[in-house]
């Protein structure tokens, strides 16, 4: 349907037509149920995967859960159950919610999968044998909620700014991963886009961080965290969650840990992540790959956060918007639309249930819903051959650049124009007094509906099917009813 669209300026480097497309979500911590922040990333990945599949590419979408670490160990203890049982339940929650949101992933990886654990141990051994991991001591401030060490200068009033908590000072024997010896190489590869970070300002942010200081070697093991993967060369230690987690991007496509057997799907074409985990993805992960001699992922694309009523969602504030709540009120496609149209993808976006409801009524019930029902009703007598339109390069470019909000705006501009075109031309009057003009007006509108149904496929698959069916049968069931 869409071949050879020039996408040299897009976030996703090079031509992707006809090739393979391997995209990943972060693997989500199995410490609590999924919320709309997680859905934001996952639905965006699903849209990209569906779009690339429609272009004839061989697509693989990987998602999953990050199940080890202190945070989860503590949660399970609080709940009074074994950690494995605890994460089993949460993983099911994630799998179900993605199915409910019509996310078609190819594999759901769990870091407690036997194969994953085996490969992580193999990689740790390789890094140890190469001398990239060594025994030492680490003193640092650890934020359990981030599962990250923090620098003094990152703290606000001595607290982690993401979690508003004082991090714990830890000083323990541990194993460390060499970072500094790869720092210059990493900077070069980020600068020349061999490891592309987008949007641009996130690339600049990372470069100024990397150029501003010597990287400290990082602790990759903990002594008193039981719930983790044991280091093969020292069973009294378990590995740092992030080292375990990053490996999912390779074990998820079947890597066995042998350097000669890198899966064909690798390198990943896109790692899509939220800005909270940019730093670790742009330092620890690529340095692990450099130490192992494995190619970088092609693109690390970072999006902003969803805020609820101007604030980070939190149970204490009581502003958490649940995915189930959205699906119940707006339906699956309505939820997918409302999440991705919330604003510019790279920046933070703010939502409230009230504003989402207003938007649903304006853009879905009145916008697309009204257009479809009017055009199908008025055009029932007009001959129209389906599939006579193809996707527009300008729109495709927006998706190749991962501009989710702008891609949707592009479609809704068309919807708005068409609704206005109906008001201006009053086809119901033309039907009585100017049949030729009536046919012309309706053919344009039917053609536009045909196009709209194609443009929305990756975003709203079910709605797209309904519009296609309406065009074929000339009968329209209401797509989105007005709600309160
Ligand atoms: N387990 C790590 C990731 C390891 S990847 C190798 C982790 N998990 S998480 O459960 O905390 O998920 C973080 C990701 O969820 C973010 O990067 C983002 O993709 C998504 N979101 C979580 N909250 C969010 C918002 N409020 N808004 C948008 N997305 C956010 O970090």
Protein architecture, described:
The chain has 484 residues and is an alpha/beta fold. 46% of the residues lie in helices and 15% in strands. The strands form four sheets. Strands 1, 2, 3, 4, 8, 13 and 14 form a seven-stranded parallel beta sheet that branches. The chain has a four-stranded antiparallel beta sheet with strand order 6-5-7-9. A hairpin with a 4-residue loop joins strand 5 (133-143) and strand 6 (148-150). The longest helix has 26 residues, at 353-378. The two termini are 39 Å apart. Bound molecules: 5'-O-[(L-methionyl)-sulphamoyl]adenosine. 5'-O-[(L-methionyl)-sulphamoyl]adenosine (MSP) binds at residues 26-29, 37-38, 40-41, 66, 245-246, 273-274, 276-277, 305-306, 313.
Determine the strand fraction and express it as a percent band.
15-25%
Overall residue-averaged pLDDT value: 93
Q: Enter the CATH topology name of the largest domain.
A: Rossmann fold
Q: Radius of gyration in whole Å, from Cα?
A: 25 Å
Q: What is the second-level CATH architecture of the largest domain? A: 3-Layer(aba) Sandwich
How would a crystallographer describe the biggest sheet? 7 strands, parallel
Number of strand elements: 16
Q: What overall geometry do the principal axes of the alpha carbons give?
A: elongated
Give the N-to-C terminal Cα separation.
39 Å
Which runs of at least 5 residues are low in confidence (pLDDT < 50)? 1-9
In CATH's first tier, which class of the largest domain applies?
Alpha Beta
Fourth-level CATH superfamily of the largest domain: HUPs
Q: Assign the structural class, choosing from mainly alpha, mainly beta, alpha/beta, alpha+beta, or little secondary structure.
A: alpha/beta
| Number of separate helices | 17
Bound molecules: 5'-O-[(L-methionyl)-sulphamoyl]adenosine
Q: What is the number of independent domains?
A: 2
Helix residue percentage: 40-55%
